Amino acid sequence: MKVEALVHTADSMNAWVEYWEKGRESQIFKTPVSANRKEHKIVITNLQPQQAYVCRIVTATNNCESKSRNYDFKTPAMPVWIHDYFKVICPDSSVVPAAFRDGYMLIYKRETPGIAFIIDPKGQIVWYHQVNGTGFKTAHFTNRQSILCILGNESFQTSYGNQILELSLSGDTLFNQQTPVVHHEAILNNDNNIVTISTEEKILDLSAKGGGKRDTVKSDGIIVLDRQGKTIWKWTVFDALDPLSDPQILKDKSDWMHANSLSIDKDGHYLLSFYNNGQIWKIDSKTGKLIWKFGKGGDFKMPEGSVFDNSHAVHINAKNQLMLFDNGTGKQLSQALAFTLDESAKQASLALQVKLPRDVYSERMGSAYLINDTTVLHTCSKRNTVVLTNLSGRFLWAMKTGIMPYRVEFIPAKDLEPFIVKPK
User: Could you point out which of 10, 40, 117, 345 has its C-alpha 20 to 30 Å from the C-alpha of 239?
Assistant: First the structure.
């Protein structure tokens, strides 16, 4: 939970708040510094519900600090409708790595009202932010300690929306822009611009395929927005592939290809995955040139036993491997996969394969992320379940959720300081 403190100083100076649970003065927390101003809006985070706290204001100028008297306050109860959203059902503290025990997870509610949560491995909510009249269709924790998300009301399907919002953990709005319809992804590139998947349409003559002379084919693209919301780069699937080359175009024209995840490779180029054809494309982020296709019918020979039906949450992991969550619709068996790629030789080797049991099979959505060298965090969206496994697929930890999680991202504890700090 978070509480806002307003502080007025006679002269421009630095200010922050020190606070602690009442009776636990040895464990003092400190907010980020509000620097060199007279009017200070300081957000106190890392608060537990229905807890008595003590705080004091600290001001500083020219290396001279001044502390106010102590103030008491008590936090309200958590809203009743989110009390039981997260229930940990398989904690095995003897085998869960410390990196996971000490970390957090980002999870969000896509229905109205949308709520983004940061929770700990006990299922306790340590931070949340609610938006009314819309839902969090997708959200990422960025390297700027912000949450970047797509918002949309319930007139938009699944992961589609028409608004991009970036929030600081203090609740400040860093970016808020109405957009054309975008979906599945909003991420930051190295220039701090926003990259997202767009919805694109093209009028085509499909009469040779049994369709009309002016049929609408709907597909996907990539757009880059600057910090003012202006489109500064654009690419579409139509730039790289002719719909008439697809024998199933009449059946698929209302959602041709269905791009469902976008990430940035180590070299700055884009990785775009498609649900309908089971492929991942690498696209030059400057020229828009299609560099390669990976998956069914792609440019790489797939290692034996590694062909995936559908992919979600495609990214380059900490081991520089191409990692994904395979929904596994053909076998009705989901799994996490990672590949080592030799891009010049178009060779791929299977670096990781973690098969999940059938009772957590997720035919849509989902994600898989390495926590360390020995564990993977999986989101089994259609089963409202999140699991931590070792590399053999053994469950080390599991959580049932009261919402359908699209993806669950892991956040190391150090990346949330000083907003959320565990007592020592």
Answer: 345
Angle at 133 between CA 127 and CA 138, to 5 degrees: 55
Taking residue 220's Cβ as centre, other Cβ atoms within 10 Å add up to 24
Question: Is there a contact between 176 and 130 (Cβ–Cβ < 8 Å)?
Answer: no
Tokens at 74, concatenated: 């008590």
> Do residues 397 and 96 lie in contact, with contact meaning Cβ atoms separated by under 8 Å?
yes
Q: Which of 274-278, 367-371, 408-412 has the lowest mean pLDDT?
A: 274-278
Residues 167 and 116: their CA atoms lie apart, in Å, by 10
Distance from chain centroid for Cα 109: 12
The kind and range of the H/E element at 5 are strand 3-21
Query: What distance lies between CA 270 and its chain's CA centroid?
Result: 16
d(CA 125, CA 105): 10
pLDDT tens per residue across span 290-327? 999 999 999 999 999 899 999 999 999 999 999 999 99
Where in 205-321 does DSSP place strands (E)? Answer: 215-225, 231-236, 259-264, 270-274, 279-283, 290-295, 311-316
Closest CA to 164 of 191, 197, 190: 197
The beta strand positions in 22-103, using DSSP E, are: 29-30, 34-44, 52-61, 64-67, 71-74, 86-88
Q: Is the pLDDT of residue 90 over 80?
A: no
Task: Encode pLDDT of 94-121 as tens digits.
Answer: 788 888 999 999 999 999 999 999 999 9
Q: Which tokens is 302 given?
A: 């797939």
Amino acid residing at 113: P
Closest CA to 307 of 270, 339, 345: 339
pLDDT in tens, 117-152: 999 999 999 999 999 999 999 999 999 999 999 999
CA distance 356 to 366: 12
Q: Give the domains, in start order, of the chain with CATH numbers.
A: 3-74 (2.60.40.10), 80-416 (2.120.10.30)
Q: Give whole-number Cα distances, 5 to 9, 332, 404, 416, in Å.
A: 13, 52, 34, 20
**pTM greater than the 0.85 cutoff:** yes
| Burial category of 142 from C-beta neighbours within 10 Å (exposed 0-12, middle 13-18, buried 19 and up) | middle
